[in-house]
Structure formats: structure tokens, C-alpha cells
């Protein structure tokens, strides 16, 4: 890979680096059960992940026939935080090929950042647990104070914190429509990885590459280099 491109690779977390759905599923069903609701299946909860935990809680209650007003939703979100915080990694696994892909990029000196809609309370412990923390000098999480993906703002904030990398010199790696739309709005190259939590077929999202898993991430990024032979 050229030493000049890409200058940075930005990663999504849930459904891209980790399969966190089983722990999110368990916490969600505990929350619902307190009100005599649920349980929801793992696949249903997977389909609710991607736009942050508050949105997930709203969707979970809606799926049980409970439309929450903003104050009711805030109370349920506040109750979800300790439930999920108590079990962030017990059932969660690293997605295939992640460790190797991170190692390869790190070895080439590519700057990396994490850009996740996941709330901040959950991020550090998960990264630590899976040995990923050292790869991410920059983390933009769900409490960063800028609009969530699919808006491009979190990606721009990460590029700024990496020292002012331009979007044209960066690649975003994610699993969902929110990831696709944020990268496209930011003007970044986009790689989508199968096996995450997308509610839409990845082939329909206009990615520069769709990969079955992270194993060939480095090669796929190399092929996206402007001017590279296809
Ligand atoms: O918590 C979520 O809903 C999604 O998080 P992600 O942006 O890392 O996929
Ligand atoms: Mg995701």
C-alpha cells in the first residue's frame, strides 16, 4: 500500500469490529421485562442497532406496542445504561479478521479512528477487552455532541482530531446504511462488511467495496487508491 494513501482509516464499532448484539439483546430484554414486555428475538434487536442506544430503546418499546414520548424514552434510556454497562462483553465477540486487519494497517502506520453511534459509557471497556484500544488514538462516540451518523459530522470531527486529514485521503469501514450515508456525505471512500446489522442489502448502498469479512480489508483498501488498476 502506498505510504501516502490512505492517510486515515475510520471504523464503525457495532457490527463491524464486534458482534455486540447478544449483550445488547440481553440488556434490552431485561429492560422490557421490567414492564412486562418482550422478549424480542436476537434478529429483531439486531435490526434496531445502528443509530445509537437511545434509538434502539425507542424501537424496542415500539415493537412491543409502546410509543414513548421524549420524557418516557429518556427514563428508559437511563435505565438501559446500567443494564448494558453491567454486561458489555460477556456475550460479545470480535468479528472475523479484525485483529489481523488492524495489525496490518497499524504496521503500515495508517492513522485510525473509531466513529461509533454507541454511547461513550460503553466504548473504552469494550476496546480494552478486545485489545483494540491501542489502535485508536481518536474516538468519536455517541456523546461527542455532534449529529450522529448518517450525518457526516462525526467523521469530519475524527478527521480533524487526526490532525486535519482531508476526506479524500480517508476510508470509512462500516456495516450499515448509517455508515454508508455518513461516508458518502463526507466524501470519503466507503468499505462495507457483511455480517453486521444492516436493514438494507449492502449491495444497494453504493459502497466502493463490499467484503464478506475483514480478512481482505487491507487489500480492498489498496484497490481503492485513486489511480490504482481495477
Ligand atoms: O450503538 C449503535 O446503535 C451503533 O453503533 P455503531 O455506530 O458502532 O454501529
Ligand atoms: Mg455498526
From TrEMBL:
Highest taxon of source = Bacteria
Recorded GO CC terms: cytosol
Q: Keyword check for Membrane, yes or no.
A: no
Catalytic reactions on record: 2-phosphoglycolate + H2O = glycolate + phosphate
- One family from Pfam that matches here is HAD_2
Required cofactor(s): Mg(2+)
- What family does the entry list? Belongs to the HAD-like hydrolase superfamily. CbbY/CbbZ/Gph/YieH family.
Q: What is this protein called?
A: phosphoglycolate phosphatase
The scientific name of the source species is: Tianweitania sediminis
Q: What is the lineage of its organism?
A: Bacteria, Pseudomonadati, Pseudomonadota, Alphaproteobacteria, Hyphomicrobiales
Amino acid at each position: 500500500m502506498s505510504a501516502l494513501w490512505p492517510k486515515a482509516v475510520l471504523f464503525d464499532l457495532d457490527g463491524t469490529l464486534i458482534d455486540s448484539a447478544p449483550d445488547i439483546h440481553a440488556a434490552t430484554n431485561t429492560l422490557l421485562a421490567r414492564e412486562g414486555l418482550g422478549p424480542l428475538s436476537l434478529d429483531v434487536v439486531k435490526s434496531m442497532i445502528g443509530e445509537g442506544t437511545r434509538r434502539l430503546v425507542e424501537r424496542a418499546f415500539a415493537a412491543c406496542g409502546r410509543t414513548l414520548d421524549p420524557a418516557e424514552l429518556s427514563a428508559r434510556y437511563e435505565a438501559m445504561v446500567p443494564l448494558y454497562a453491567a454486561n458489555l462483553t460477556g456475550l460479545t465477540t470480535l468479528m472475523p479478521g479484525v485483529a489481523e486487519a488492524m495489525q496490518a494497517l497499524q504496521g503500515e502506520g495508517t492513522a485510525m479512528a473509531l466513529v461509533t453511534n454507541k454511547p461513550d459509557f460503553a466504548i473504552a471497556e469494550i476496546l480494552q477487552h478486545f485489545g483494540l484500544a491501542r489502535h485508536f488514538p481518536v474516538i468519536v462516540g455517541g456523546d461527542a455532541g455532534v449529529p450522529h451518523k448518517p450525518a457526516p459530522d462525526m467523521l469530519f470531527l475524527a478527521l480533524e482530531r487526526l490532525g486535519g486529514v482531508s476526506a479524500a485521503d480517508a476510508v470509512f469501514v462500516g456495516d450499515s446504511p448509517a455508515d454508508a450515508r455518513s461516508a458518502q456525505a463526507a466524501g470519503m471512500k466507503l468499505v462495507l462488511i457483511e455480517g453486521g446489522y444492516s436493514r438494507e442489502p449492502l449491495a444497494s448502498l453504493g459502497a466502493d467495496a463490499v467484503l464478506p469479512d475483514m480478512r481482505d480489508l487491507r487489500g480492498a483498501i489498496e484497490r481503492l487508491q485513486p489511480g490504482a488498476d481495477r
